[in-house]
Write a structure and sequence with these properties.
Layout: H1 3-31, H2 36-68, H3 77-103, H4 109-142, H5 145-162, H6 167-182, H7 186-192
Helix pairs in contact: 1-2, 1-4, 1-6, 1-7, 2-3, 2-5, 2-6, 3-4
Length: 204
């Protein structure tokens, strides 16, 4: 499996939680209440699987590998992806604050949670589409077979020595548990996935 295939598979797991978060946002907006337990589960998933586990491999391994092959680090596609990761982190931080505020009885906290959750879902669905349809195919063309083998080894090292060998299994189980709670099916997830409007990468 190529490194980009590993990242692509992780996107499918993240999309499950995005669909659950969409449901949480709708409920918070219409009911005026945040369903705290699953909302906290979603925030934990986004911080530890989507960000530290998944984005961490992209930022520390994939993007530098592409930049060593000539992609500009300060103005190219990897710079855009890093910026969008930061935007996503800001949404997640504000979601967490809104959950805390709701538990304290703060006025407007459920609407703030819904607003940040919807913003994050929209951002990340578009971000995932750009990576799947443009950045990852570009990486597959740029990286030599030897570089891809090295990158896959680095990914394996991240999982076994940096974030822990049980991280993938644990958070995939969280995603499936949330999907069951909110009635999210694979068909529903696919229906919500984006087709990005960005220009295609260079052809082989």
């Amino acid at each position: 499996m190529r490194p980009t295939e590993t990242l692509n598979a992780e996107h499918r797991v993240i999309e499950v939680v995005l669909s659950c978060l969409d449901k949480m946002a709708d409920s918070a907006f219409t009911s005026g209440a945040v369903d705290v337990a699953p909302a906290r589960e979603a925030v934990d998933f986004l911080r530890n699987y989507a960000d530290a586990f998944h984005h961490g491999k992209e930022e520390a391994r994939l993007f530098p590998a592409m930049e060593r092959c000539g992609m500009p680090a300060d103005a190219g596609p990897t710079a855009v992806m890093r910026h969008e990761h930061e935007l996503g982190r800001a949404h997640v931080r504000k979601m967490a604050v809104a959950i805390d505020d709701f538990e304290k009885g703060a006025s407007g906290s459920s609407d703030r949670f819904a607003f940040e959750a919807r913003g994050f879902v929209e951002l990340l669905r578009d971000h995932i589409a750009k990576e799947d349809q443009v950045l990852f195919p570009m990486a597959d063309r740029m990286l030599s077979p030897a570089a891809q083998i090295e990158l896959k080894s680095e990914f394996d090292h991240v999982e076994t020595h940096e974030v822990g060998p049980g991280t993938r299994t644990r958070y995939e189980a969280v995603a499936q548990s949330l999907a069951g709670r909110f009635g999210i099916t694979p068909e529903a997830v696919r229906a919500c996935s984006h087709v990005c409007g960005c220009a295609p990468g260079p052809k082989d």
